[in-house]
User: Fold this.
Amino acid sequence: MTATEQHASVRYIVDDVQAAIDFYTTHLGFTVHTSAVPAFADVVRGPLRLLLSGPASSGARATPDDAAAAGRNRIHLTVDDLDAEIDRLRGEGVSFRSDVIAGPGGRQILLADPAANLIELFQPAHRPGVCLAKGVSGDLG
Assistant:
């Protein structure tokens, strides 16, 4: 294995790389790291590097046909105020794929990017006496 990078990377297969860049940078606070539109780009937010692979990219071409549809896996973005984020995103015309769901670990809602890849916005529960590392949350919900 090679040395670890400063980012954890996730690859999303997208239909339109520029539309994906616009979505993630406009609505979710990512910044462009590399752009080779229309084939590929990567965007970053904190320690997450999101690889956006268009149809012409090697990442998309390596994907078997029976695995070409967006899946149920998703990136998980922790937010301080879920209700405020929902209001802000709805005001920007973003629609959601679920209602808010609450559990013992916190509250979450799902939205999708232009290629139907899921994104989870998660607000951890405030639990007296428990200190979670900043930006780290458990999946207790």
